[in-house]
Backbone:
């Protein structure tokens, strides 16, 4: 335990030192000035420290991993925002949010990479134990049968409704603007997510597929509000999927191993 | 009682009533690495039944019957398909007595019978859930995954 603490202390000091060094060299270059804003240097050193301890959240699993990751992300996001503001990379809060969004995306990618490592490890264990292979990574294979439905729900039907609206020549697109996205789409997404969840458990790619499939409608329907509709399909799909996971089918032919 | 095994090796079994620990004697013309390996593997085998308690009654159950051993409060419990029993040993003591090929520690508080693992699941948060026969769920700590893999590779890989 003592050795481990020493190891982390070394990482913190090395990370902080390297971060500070990078800050001293890089900050004047970015600001085009000889002066280094002290807060920017502090942010650089802090980011070095969080990079040094970046593997710590993944040392555990379950609730502890989520809590540590959330804590690590919160500290990193705060330091990153400080750096962005100090270096005047962006001048308004929406710009800062955009940079934070990129940071979040990086986090998701790192997490995904780590998860794939765990999955490979688990596959090896399954093989060594002589067990049947488990579900595909992130259950992409289990999600595929639902994709045609998602395509119809999120692309074909809105386009058909828009075609009807144009044919009729209505001034206000009530079908594609209100009725479908606010009433039919969430209910259908919830039901589809529920069905998938009850059959295959939690499939995180399903709500993502709903979001992505509806995304082109923002441009096709020429409605910027359609971006909100992407969430009107993705969020109910996720909720339904979680509900299906919580209340699975009683008689599952697949047996244990498909529930998670 | 005697018999002839396959693979060109004679296997003889003698039953001695009253004997506790089984004894294996290997007769060979010359020493070889394969023989040494066999000796190591046999030495690692533990076939002794484990003493468990149900109330005031003590029972000796064969190792194969156990699903898992786990700490509960200050004591250690053993679970079989039939029920849960109290064990008068610590987990580290059990680790020494149990068959290394079959039992492995999966967390600070649990040892499972690998022969009784029916399924493995991975959650999005990296938790490994083991489903044992009879629908018993246990959770493996990530810190022990390497050790579990090593045990399986060493102990089961040899058998292949």
Residues:
């Amino acid at each position: 335990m003592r050795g481990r603490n020493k190891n982390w202390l070394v990482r913190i000091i090395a990370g902080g030192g390297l971060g500070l060094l990078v800050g001293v060299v890089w900050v004047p270059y970015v600001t085009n000035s000889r002066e280094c804003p002290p807060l920017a240097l502090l942010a650089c050193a802090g980011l070095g420290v969080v990079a040094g301890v970046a593997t710590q959240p993944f040392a555990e699993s379950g609730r502890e991993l989520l809590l540590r990751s959330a804590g690590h992300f919160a500290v990193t996001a705060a330091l990153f925002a400080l750096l962005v503001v100090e270096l005047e990379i962006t001048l308004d809060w929406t710009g800062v949010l955009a940079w934070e969004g990129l940071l979040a995306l990086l986090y998701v990618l790192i997490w995904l990479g780590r998860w794939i490592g765990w999955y490979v490890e688990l596959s090896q264990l399954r093989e060594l134990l002589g067990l049947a292979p488990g579900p595909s990574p992130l259950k992409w294979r289990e999600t595929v049968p639902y994709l045609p439905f998602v395509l119809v729900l999120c692309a074909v039907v809105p386009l058909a409704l828009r075609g009807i609206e144009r044919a009729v020549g209505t001034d206000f697109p009530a079908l594609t603007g209100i009725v479908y996205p606010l009433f039919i789409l969430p209910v259908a997404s919830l039901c589809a997510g529920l069905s998938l969840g009850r059959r295959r458990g939690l499939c995180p790619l399903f709500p993502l597929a709903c979001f992505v499939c509806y995304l082109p409608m923002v441009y096709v329907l020429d409605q910027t509000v359609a971006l909100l509709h992407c969430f009107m399909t993705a969020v109910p799909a996720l909720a339904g999927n979680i509900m299906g996971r919580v209340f699975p089918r009683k008689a599952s032919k697949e047996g244990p191993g498909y529930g998670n | 009682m005697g018999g002839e095994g396959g693979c060109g090796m004679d296997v003889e079994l003698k039953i001695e009533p009253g004997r506790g620990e089984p004894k294996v004697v290997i007769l060979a013309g010359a020493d070889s690495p394969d023989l040494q390996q066999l000796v190591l593997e046999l030495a690692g085998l533990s076939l002794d039944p484990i003493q468990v308690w149900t109330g005031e009654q003590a029972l000796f159950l064969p190792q194969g019957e156990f699903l898992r051993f786990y700490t509960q409060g200050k004591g250690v419990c053993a679970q079989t398909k039939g029920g849960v029993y109290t064990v008068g040993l610590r987990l580290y003591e059990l680790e020494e007595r149990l068959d290394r090929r079959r039992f492995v520690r999966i967390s600070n508080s649990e040892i499972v019978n690998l022969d009784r693992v029916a399924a493995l699941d991975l959650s999005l948060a990296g938790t490994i859930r083991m489903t044992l026969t009879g629908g018993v769920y246990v959770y493996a700590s990530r810190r022990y995954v390497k050790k579990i893999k090593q045990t399986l590779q060493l102990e089961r890989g040899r058998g292949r």
About this structure: The helical segments of chain B are 33-44, 91-97, 145-156.
